[in-house]
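Subject: for your reference before the review

Hello V.,

The reviewers asked for a structural picture of the protein, and I figured it would be easier to keep everything in one thread rather than splitting it across files. Below is the amino acid sequence we used in the manuscript, unchanged from the supplementary table.
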Amino acid sequence: MKLLLRWLISAAAIFAVPYIVPGVHVLDLYTAIIAALVIGLINLVIRPILIILTLPITILTLGLFTLVINALLFWFVSTFVKGFYVDGFVAALLGSLAFWAISWIGNAIAGTKD
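And here is what came back from the structure prediction:
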């Protein structure tokens, strides 16, 4: 049940991001639900591998390179989810930060954070 609630919170966060960040576009709620699923799967599978592969540069930048990885993955999802568009890297960076913040607040309010 918590997983479904977290997924819906992520979908709501993706649906809200275009209102905060110019350059991020979501067609409808169905697209936000699909994008939330794909972002969750990519964060589960690809993100840990990228974090390990870029560990030296992440250490040199004191962890700030993780923001770049998150932005690139956010942008990557927009390349194959129809109806979810990100105009460039800056929009992806700001969009991923807004997505994280909204999701974090939503999960804290709902009590789904472990």
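For the response letter, the relevant points are probably these. Residues 29-53 form the longest helix (25 residues). The CA atoms of residues 38 and 44 lie 10 Å apart.

Happy to draft the paragraph if you're swamped.

O.
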